[in-house]
Amino acid sequence: MASSKSTSNRMLYAGGGLLLVLLVAGGLGWQLGWFGGGERGLQVESERAERRTITEVVTAFGRAQPEVEVEISPDVSGEIVELPVKEGDVVQQGDLLARLKADDYRAAVERAEAGVSEAKATLAQRKADSVQARRTYDRQKKLYEKEVVSASDFEDAKSTYEQAVAQLQAARFRVESARADLQDAREQLQKTRIYAPMSGTLTRLEVEEGERVVGTQQRAGTEMMRVSRLGQMELEVDVNESDVVNVASRDSATIEFDAHPDRSFQGAVTEIANSARIQNEGSQNEVTNFPVTIRVLDNPNTGLTSGDEGAIARPEVPREGARSPVIRPGMSGAVDIYTETAEEAVAVPIQAVTVRDFAKTRSGDASGAAAQGDGAAEDLRRVVFVAEGDSARMVEVNTGIADDTYMEITAGLEGGETVITGPYSAVSRELEPGMKIQTGEQEGQSGETIAMTQ
């Protein structure tokens, strides 16, 4: 009885194992197409090439600054005894900004005035001496001609007269020099009062009353304050060397400030630097950027509107002090510079465009996937793979501009083709011309797209 039961168990286990093997083999056979399905092919993703508007954009970051800003430093050194302004004040051209202690400069004026008086007195004396020497010379000359006096006496009189004339001329020069010293002393005294060179807003105040400042006659001098015209604002942004070649003067731009996340401003490129600004020079992280200046066209500080989108309008006179400025110096912002637009362009997803080595394709490597280190001459070309039924066809293409999603195809496609977009490993390496595929087409989104290139 026990033997019969054991035999039944062995048969049950054997049957179960056979069933498991058949299931695994059946699944594998289905995947390999053994049961009438044929070769299933590589599973890929696809999307239809469509005509759309592509706008190429260069994105950069920078800080707001006034177009016109004057750094004010004293011409003379001294202690600040009066400071009638504070940061944020609106000033008019000619307003008093600060006054320095003037005692020493006033004393210098008095000394210079005394010097002028002394020089004038000396000049008067030299004039009298010159007149007397002239009379003596004329008298001695007449007597010498009558042979009444010796030649030696005549020469002495002549020499004395010439010396008197020279001393008179020197006295005149000393008077002019003393007057110049007086003028300089008066100017130095006037420079102890510092006035606003233009109308604007006091955007920076670096000193306090009682502080001693150094004039610009001694090195760089002390920066006391800055006066800015907030009605004319701009941003200076760093654009990478690979992108700056696409940027041109008067390109339109959109500006977004971190301080105003729900608001954007119109701008235009006004200046592109010719000299690079290199960061981390000499290291592996070296970055080469070029400063680009973007003018804010619809500056809310003045209510100025941009007018024509691509034009650079001259701003109206800023209404300084009308209200607190919306854009303040130093605010950080992101700028999208619109460099080029292609309308009704045949476009495919960026990931659909890949590179194949046509030299390998000609030599028998069907995939032509780019590889490194084989030492063979390369013939790299841009291609896309078009899904035709259940197979892939490789098409060489020429590309134009791109945004963050789509790339313009200028030659090779007419539009309407189904291009393979993924997976990445398939597009970049695995796909071969004529390879069997299974597509999962994605619905493309037509319309305008914007690039975000950094």
Please give a structural write-up:
With 454 residues, this protein is α+β, with helices and mostly antiparallel strands. The protein has 4 domains: 42-53 and 344-450, Beta Barrel (conserved putative lor/sdh protein from methanococcus maripaludis s2 fold); 74-99 and 194-227, OB fold (Dihydrolipoamide Acetyltransferase, E2P) (Beta Barrel), CATH 2.40.50.100; 104-190, Helix Hairpins (Orthogonal Bundle), CATH 1.10.287.470; 232-336, Beta Barrel (Elongation Factor Tu (Ef-tu), domain 3), CATH 2.40.30. 29% of the residues lie in helices and 33% in strands. It has a 6-stranded antiparallel barrel. A 4-stranded antiparallel sheet has the order 3-10-8-5, with no helix packed on it.
The appropriate CATH architecture of the largest domain is Beta Barrel
Radius of gyration: 44 Å
Number of helices: 6
CATH class annotation of the largest domain: Mainly Beta
Mean of residue pLDDT?
83
Net shape: elongated
Category by helix and strand content: alpha+beta
How much helix is in the residues?
Answer: 25-40%
Précis, in short:
It comes from Salinibacter ruber. By secondary structure, this protein is of the alpha+beta class.
Core attributes:
OB fold (Dihydrolipoamide Acetyltransferase, E2P); MdtA-like_HH; 29% helix; 33% strand; 4-stranded antiparallel β-sheet; 4 domains; Helix Hairpins; conserved putative lor/sdh protein from methanococcus maripaludis s2 fold; 6 helices; MdtA-like_BSH; 6-stranded antiparallel beta barrel; 454 residues; HlyD family secretion protein; single chain; alpha+beta; disordered C terminus
